[in-house]
Amino acid sequence: MSRIGKKPVVIPKGVTVQVAPGSIAVKGTKGERKLAVRPEVNVAVEGTNVVVSASDEERKTRALQGTTRALIANMIEGVSKGYEKKLEIAGVGYEAALEGKVLVLKLGFNRPVRFNVPGTVTVEVPNPTTLLVKGIDNQQVGTVAAAIRKLRKPEPYKGKGIKYSDEVIKRKAGKAFASGGAA
């Protein structure tokens, strides 16, 4: 049985949930999100909770029940609190600046890298070595943060590059001086 799918999702104050056949809409202070619901899964609002139930006990249906419940919980959290990923830039001369909706990154290449920020998220640059990616869609925030990180992944020898703030880079020793051996 899907244990996650059976848990009701609590609707916080300031968030409205509307269930229509085949879809669910969530509106909050940060924005509005919609989700198409599979026909095998039933969604209902009971008081201040959203309850997701499966139409039968097949394995695929129970998996869809848990997935739908998790997506609805993420939507509610996104429109009420929002999501945020923090990225840090390490390296001499490595920095970021924001020009409108274009993120300009100096990452040690021969020219700055320009990254167009999609309209679904916002990017803030509190200081030249810190980036904040914010939005109401957890998947979009993660995708944009991963795309920015991919521009210059952190390398293990000097630790230069873009990394998540909670990411730990395993450092490697460089070339050691070979002693005693004749080449």
Concise synopsis of the structure shown:
With 183 residues, this protein is α+β, with helices and mostly antiparallel strands. It contains three helices and 13 strands; from the N terminus they run H-E-E-E-E-E-E-H-E-E-E-E-E-E-H-E.
Ordered list of secondary-structure elements with their pairings:
Blueprint: H1 3-6, E1 9-10, E2 16-20, E3 23-27, E4 32-36, E5 41-46, E6 49-54, H2 59-80, E7 83-90, E8 95-99, E9 102-106, E10 113-116, E11 121-127, E12 130-135, H3 138-150, E13 161-164
Antiparallel strand pairs: 1-6, 2-3, 3-4, 5-6, 7-12, 7-13, 8-9, 9-10, 11-12
Walk me through the structure.
The structure is a single chain. The protein is an alpha+beta fold and 183 residues long. It folds into 2 domains: 3-80, Ribosomal protein L6 (Outer Surface Protein A, domain 3, Alpha-Beta Complex); 83-164, Outer Surface Protein A, domain 3 (Alpha-Beta Complex), CATH 3.90.930.12. It has 3 helices and 13 strands; from the N terminus they run αββββββαββββββαβ. The longest helix is centred in the middle third of the chain and has 22 residues, at 59-80.
Please supply descriptive tags for the structure shown above.
about 180 residues; alpha+beta; Outer Surface Protein A, domain 3; four-stranded antiparallel sheet; three-stranded antiparallel sheet
Overall strand count: 13
Q: What do we call the CATH homologous superfamily of the largest domain?
A: Ribosomal protein L6
* Helix fraction by DSSP (H/I, runs of at least 4): 10-25%
Give the CATH level 1 class of the largest domain: Alpha Beta
Distance between the termini: 65 Å
Number of helices: 3
Alpha-beta content class? alpha+beta
Write out the strand line-up for the largest beta sheet, numbering strands in chain order: 11-12-7-13
Question: What can be said about the biggest beta sheet?
Answer: 4 strands, antiparallel
Shape: elongated
Overall pLDDT score:
92
Radius of gyration: 22 Å
Stretches where pLDDT falls below 50 for ≥5 residues?
none
How many domains make up the 3D coordinates? 2
Proportion in β-strands: 35-45%
Q: What would CATH call the architecture of the largest domain?
A: Alpha-Beta Complex
Which fold name corresponds to the CATH topology of the largest domain? Outer Surface Protein A, domain 3
Topology pattern, helix = H, strand = E: HEEEEEEHEEEEEEHE
